[in-house]
Design brief:
- The chain has nine helices and three strands.
- By secondary structure, the chain is mainly alpha-helical.
- It has two domains: 73 residues, Helix Hairpins (Orthogonal Bundle); 91 residues, 3-Layer(bab) Sandwich (minor pseudopilin epsh fold), CATH 3.55.40.20.
- Strands 2-1-3 form a three-stranded antiparallel beta sheet.
- β1 and β2 form a beta hairpin.
- The longest helix is centred in the first third of the chain and has 23 residues.
- The protein binds manganese (III) ion.
- Manganese (III) ion (MN3) binds next to α1.
Amino acid sequence: MNLELPKLNYAFDALEPYIDAKTMEIHYTKHHQAYFDNFKKAIQNYPELLEMTAIKIVTDINKLGTTLNIPASDLQKIKNHGGGYLNHNLYWSIMGPEKELNETLIKKINAEFGSVENFKGQFNETAGRHFGSGWAWLVEDSENKLKIYTLPNQDSPYTLGDEPLIALDLWEHAYYLKYQNRRPDYIENWWQVVKII
Ligand code: MN3
């Protein structure tokens, strides 16, 4: 497997004032790096996993746990850090200082939710209701239907058989330096730096 930490395509301060440079730097160089390092460590003793992509591992993690006889503690580490690694890869990739609209996705969102604004309203409401750490997701399920939901911790939509399209990090490390307890403001402002819709 050619596992790497994807480079950020923008500077730490590129998303100011919506996401501050210090948060970006710590989030990417400490948090994401740690998920990446710990994921590599967690799979290193399983040659079968080393042959797979990270997405394949996280998608099939429960089945793999059984077929490869992975102890529960190792399995949890692979889930947590594999999810953390993939979740952040998507989060960075859909943000940027300049819009790069994904017209295909916008068309799907319009068809499913009526309008992008409508979709954002539903997404924000779902994200706002989430208790504790986790992520808010827009996913496409196996029947090509778009769905909004949240998952706790670093759980991944891939494990549920869904393809993640939009990912919002709701962990305090993603916003606390700038927004403190004002998570709803972070959620609202975050759309200013989502480049794809
Ligand atoms: Mn995070």
